[in-house]
Amino acid sequence: MSEEEQQIPPEDANAPINVKVVSATGDEVFFKIKRSTKLSKLQGAYANKVGKDVNSIRFLYDGARISDTDTPASLDMEDNDTIDVMVEQVGGCVPCSS
Amino acid sequence: MVGSVNVVFNTIQGLAEYNPAIQELFECPVQINIKLDLDYQAKQQWDFVSPKNGESLSSFFNVSFLPRVRDASECLWLIETAVDLGSVLHSAADKHEVSTPKVFVTLQQTLVLKRSLLLILKNLFILGTSVIQPDVAKDSLRRISEPLRTLMAFDIDFDRIKEVKLKDFLYLDQKRCINDEVMNYFCSKWTRMWPTKQVIALTTFFSAKALFEHGKPREQVCDRLWEVTLTYGETAKRCTGFSRFDKAFVPIHEPGSHWFSALIDYEEKKIEIYGSWGPTYEQNSGVRPGAQNKSGTNVSRMSCT
C-alpha cells in the first residue's frame, strides 16, 4: 500500500478527479475537480446548474454529509466516485383537533 | 477563565520558543484575550431589543441591530482564526512530540462550541443585511427571536448540530413544520436516551434513498436496500465506533409532508413506529400507558426531550 503511494508522482496528488453527482431521480451531472478544491464550490456549481438554492439541497458521500470545508482529499475520494444529492424534505404534524 | 487563558499563553509562548514558525503565528497573544471578551458580548446579544416608540424601523435596523450582529460576525471570525491556530499548534506539538497540555485542549473545545453558537449569529447577520424593506425587517425580527428563544430552551448541544442552521428552525415558527436537518438532529439526540446501548440514527437520506423512488415507495426494495444499508451502516459504524447496533432510528419522510420514525430494536427483534399524526396520538393518549408510549408523536417527544 505505502509502496504504491510512493510511486505516485507529487503532481498526481493534485490532479483533477472526475466526480459524478447523482440526484434522487437518477439524473447525473459530471464534474472535474482538483483534490484540494473545497467541495462547497462543486455544490454551488451544481445548484446553479440545476437552478436550485444550494441551501435546499444536501450532498452526501458514502451516506455521510459533506460539510463546507471538505475536499476530495479530506474525504479520500477517488476518481469516478459518486456524490448523492437529496432535496430538502419538509413535513409536519396534522394539527390535533381540540 | 483569565487564569486558564494565561496558562495557555505561557504554553503557547513555551512552544513558540521551540519553533520560530509558531512564534510568528502567535505574535500578538493579546488578541486572543479580545476574542474571549467579544465572545462574551456576542452571547449577550441573544436578547433582542425592539424599536423604541418613534424610532423608525430602518434606522433601528441600521443603528441598533446591524452593528451588533456585525460585531458577532467579527467575533466569529476571530474565534475561527483561534480554532485554526489551535489546530496548527496541535499538529506542531504532535510533530515535535510535545504533549499538548490539557488546558489547551479544553480551551480549543470551548472555542469550537462557541463557534457553533456564533454561526447562528452569523446567519442572523446575513439575514439582517439582506433585509431592505422596513416592514420585512419587523417581521424578521419577530420571526427570529421566537426560534432563538426555543433554541435556548431546548438546551441544544451545539457541538453536534453543525448542519442545522437557523433557517431550519424557522420552519417550526412559520409553518409549524420540520425539515430533514431538524429531524436528523432530533433522531441523533434520541439515540442518547440509552447511554449504555449502542443506538444509532440513520438519516432521512437513508430512507429517501432506500425506500422511495420518484416520490413513491419502491416496488422492489431488496437489492437497493441491501446496497444502501451497507453503505449507511458502515458510515454509522465509522462515526460512532460501534461494532454492532442494539437499536436504530430510521426517520422516514412520506411524500406528502408527513414525518414518522421507525425504531428497529435488534435486541428484542421488533420494530416500533413513531407517527406524528395528531388524531392517532389523541386516540392512543386515552387508551393505556403502554400503547401511549409506543405511539408518542415525534413532535411531542421533541418538546419534552
Automatic annotation (TrEMBL), chain A:
It holds the Pfam family Rad60-SLD. Signal peptide: none annotated. Gene3D superfamilies: Phosphatidylinositol 3-kinase Catalytic Subunit, Chain A, domain 1. SUPFAM superfamilies: Ubiquitin-like. Residues 15-92 form the Ubiquitin-like domain. This is Small ubiquitin-related modifier. It comes from Gymnopus androsaceus JB14. The lineage of its organism: Eukaryota, Fungi, Dikarya, Basidiomycota, Agaricomycotina.
UniProtKB/TrEMBL annotation, chain B:
One of its GO terms (molecular function) is ubiquitin-like protein peptidase activity. Keywords: Hydrolase, Protease. Residues 285-305 are annotated as: Disordered. It comes from the Eukaryota. GO terms for biological process: proteolysis. Residues 162-305 form the Ubiquitin-like protease family profile domain. Belongs to the peptidase C48 family. This is Ubiquitin-like protease family profile domain-containing protein. The lineage of its organism: Eukaryota, Fungi, Dikarya, Basidiomycota, Agaricomycotina.
